[in-house]
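Hey, can you fold this one?
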Amino acid sequence: MRRIDRLLSEYGESHQNATNKTIHWVCVPLIFFSMVGLIASIPASILQDRFGSYVNWAFVTLVLVLIYYRSLSFSLTIGMGLFAILCLALVNVIAGIATLWLVSVVIFALAWIGQFYGHKVEGKKPSFFKDLQFLLIGPAWLMHFIYKRIGIPY
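Sure. Predicted structure:
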């Protein structure tokens, strides 16, 4: 069994309840996005002086995250890369009209409340309590369902 299949299967073990799954479809992308926003809020003048205004700490972090995804599945990396680009674009929009870190903190807190409620309904602890890498597997788990739905192998 491929590593990605094992990780997705293990993650799925604590995500069987329909309510918990639905909550995850909302909250996991919001947590991912809010983390991009929080990391993008870190001053990045040292990066921007050298590489340009489009490079910030969120960009650097997402490159590293995509390297991790690439070690698991090339095709999932493409989907997660597209989602990462969408998050970066939305972060830039929000930064232009609101206080990015504050919006990100509120989204982060509310989404985690949702996640923990979902796991209470499920009756199982979140997977990341067992292994922190499951914080990155959650978004890939959702992406693999999208891939299955449209017939893309992962």
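Helices lie at 3-13, 18-40, 45-51, 57-72, 74-97, 100-122, 134-150. Let me know if you want another pass with a different chain boundary.
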